């Protein structure tokens, strides 16, 4: 019997509470019965008999098309309709070429085609595509709905683009659990706050930057997040200032952060409501249920706690590799022998996206960055992630904004952010630059940031500082070092050189 990641559950909920909202986007909504009926009668999306290319804006129409593709057993690829037309055309052609190659392969009678071509950023302008089987998401749903306490009574708002991997997963996870899913046709903090009120949202799934925007606006306008029981953050670090802001805005929410990758699925997670006094500042949590984590050196030897190396993961959630765009800098799977792991593990398949980190004595994963983000300064390997943490610690001490007494919880500091990247340099090979986003502060904190930088080894000290009028973000709201360097190279007014 072919595994479907959430279709059996969708049919169950349509039969047992078919009149309850399944998906709401703006003014459009579909009950479970309507969603299943629409998926069963949906005309084929563009593509082929085995491939569905879904290319519509965030909408209930996107949800129907995605469910229809999965129901039909076609491989789905969801494109962000906001991407440039030329890029989408390149992706459509790459998917068609991949599908044609798949047709020539002898998969065997028992082999199931992948259900998803997911898109992940690469070193070139065209995203690479990873291949995911249905079982990996189905098993992930089984674990995540329990870990995040998601059920039929839950109403989840994912305010980012529905095509983004995290939000597409959140939609599917909600359908698996029988809950309601809410998305926005276009993001703004006000639109998110309005949707929360209109649809009794009790759970958010979002990236930290978007959480900061919503919480700040909510506190400023007196729209508290008192009804939220859960906030799930991923995609990047959750800064302390943003965490404090979110706690003030949504005091009853369990704020959880997880680390993962589109190719790996869940890796580690933690609840921010119960901070561990022994937790290193870089800790992202312990292994997610069903996952094992191993830190290894370049030769594949497992390292002791506290020693930094490549983060390798073993579990049922990983993808099956790339359909195109494998640049050698990301997802890799292999077996390890003689690793000293418990019996039965030596032949297991481990995967990595070349993130760097270490496990502490309590088994908490601490990250230092991704190998592809590494900057080589005068022959020294520097991970921007570590430098950002040091600079952001200085920004945390910034005084609250004058007049920022918001709501009833006293002064709330506006979150400031440091973004560090590398630029080519004739003498050093590369040089570090730092962009500082400090909105509405009484004075720009250059002196504080430079003082913090002086405590770092010489190779880790930024040589150029820029004042940012906006955060450099991807379309899904993640902070992007690539966008920052583009701004600087192009002389974009959003990044002003100050030293």
Automatic annotation (TrEMBL):
GO terms for molecular function: medium-chain fatty acid-CoA ligase activity. The keyword Magnesium does not apply. Residues 116-322 form the AMP-dependent synthetase/ligase domain. This is Acyl-CoA synthetase (AMP-forming)/AMP-acid ligase II. Belongs to the ATP-dependent AMP-binding enzyme family. Keywords: Ligase. Pfam families: AMP-binding. The keyword Transport does not apply. Signal peptide: none annotated. One of its GO terms (biological process) is fatty acid metabolic process.
């Amino acid at each position: 019997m072919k595994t479907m990641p959430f279709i059996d559950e969708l049919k169950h909920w349509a039969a047992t509470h078919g009149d309850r909202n399944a998906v709401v986007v703006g003014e459009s909504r579909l009950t479970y019965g309507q969603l299943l009926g629409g998926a069963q009668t949906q005309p084929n999306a563009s593509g082929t008999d085995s491939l569905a290319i879904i290319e519509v804006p965030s909408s209930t129409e996107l949800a129907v098309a995605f469910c229809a593709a999965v129901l039909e057993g076609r491989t789905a690829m969801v494109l962000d309709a906001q991407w440039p037309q030329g890029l989408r055309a390149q992706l459509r052609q790459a998917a068609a070429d991949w599908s044609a190659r798949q047709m020539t392969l002898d998969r065997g009678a028992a082999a199931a085609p992948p259900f998803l071509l997911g898109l992940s950023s690469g070193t070139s302008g065209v995203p690479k595509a990873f291949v995911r089987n249905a079982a990996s998401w189905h098993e992930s749903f089984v674990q995540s709905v329990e870990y995040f306490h998601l059920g039929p009574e839950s109403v989840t708002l994912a305010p980012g683009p529905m095509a983004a991997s995290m939000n597409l997963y959140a939609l599917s996870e909600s359908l698996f659990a029988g809950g309601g899913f809410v998305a926005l046709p276009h993001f703004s903090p006000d639109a998110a706050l309005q949707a929360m009120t209109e649809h009794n949202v009790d759970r958010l799934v979002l990236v930290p930057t978007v959480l900061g925007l919503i919480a700040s606006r909510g506190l400023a306008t007196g729209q508290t997040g008192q009804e939220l029981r859960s906030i799930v953050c991923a995609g990047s670090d959750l800064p302390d200032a943003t965490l404090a802001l979110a706690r003030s805005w949504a005091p009853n929410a369990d704020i959880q952060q997880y680390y993962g990758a589109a190719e790996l699925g869940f890796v580690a997670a933690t609840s921010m409501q119960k901070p561990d006094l022994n937790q290193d500042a870089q800790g992202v949590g312990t292994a997610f249920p069903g996952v094992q984590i191993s830190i290894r050196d370049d030769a594949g030897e497992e390292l002791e706690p506290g020693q930094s190396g490549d983060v390798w993961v073993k579990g049922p959630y990983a993808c099956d590799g790339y359909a195109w765009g494998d640049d050698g800098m990301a997802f890799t799977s292999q077996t390890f022998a003689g690793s000293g792991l418990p019996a039965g593990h030596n032949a297991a398949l481990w995967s990595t996206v070349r993130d760097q980190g270490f496990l502490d004595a309590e088994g908490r994963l601490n990250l230092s960055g991704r190998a592809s983000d590494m900057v080589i300064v005068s022959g020294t390997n520097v991970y921007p992630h570590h430098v950002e943490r040091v600079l952001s610690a200085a920004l945390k001490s910034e005084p609250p904004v004058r007049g920022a007494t918001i709501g009833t919880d006293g002064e709330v500091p506006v979150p400031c952010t440091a973004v560090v990247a590398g630029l080519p340099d004739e003498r050093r090979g590369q040089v570090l630059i730092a962009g500082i986003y400090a909105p509405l502060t009484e004075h720009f904190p250059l002196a504080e940031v430079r003082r913090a930088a002086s405590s770092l080894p010489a190779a880790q000290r930024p040589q150029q500082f820029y004042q940012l009028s906006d955060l450099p973000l991807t379309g899904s709201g993640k902070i992007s070092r690539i966008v920052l360097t583009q701004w600087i190279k192009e002389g974009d007014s959003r990044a002003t050189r100050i030293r």
